[in-house]
Amino acid sequence: MDEGASRDEVLKVLADPTRWRIVTLFGEDGELSCEALQDVLPLSKPTISYHTKVLARAGLIDAHRRGRHVSYTLRGEALRGVVHDIATLAPGWRGAEPVALPTW
After folding, report:
1. Does residue 58 fall inside a structural domain?
2. b/e 30-53 (16+ beta carbons within 10 angstroms → b)
3. First to last CA, the chain
4. Can you give the CATH number for the domain in which 70 is found?
5. Which pLDDT band holds residue 2 (cuts at 50, 70, 90)?
6. Which of 11, 15, 25, 36 is most solvent-facing, going by the fewest CB within 10 Å?
7. Is residue 65 assigned to a domain?
8. Domain range for residue 64?
9. pLDDT at position 100, please?
């Protein structure tokens, strides 16, 4: 969220089922290329590119160009920030010890 996207914008980005699926794939594999996403998702390369750009603009992933290929990594700190914001809404959170969040 530290790239200018508000919490509301990040939640809207994550609400899309395709983008949520992409984020979960990053959570499982850490770094994925566009080609790897194409192998897993029933989407065209332009559609995957669109969704990864939206995720990058929201500050949730980083793109890394290696020659003609682009790989993406999840920005764990941005996702942890959203998880923390949501967790603080849970009853008992304010007085309780903070929950250990995943390291992604």
Report:
1. yes
2. eebebeebeeeeebeeeebeebbe
3. 15
4. 1.10.10.10
5. very low
6. 15
7. yes
8. 7-87
9. 61
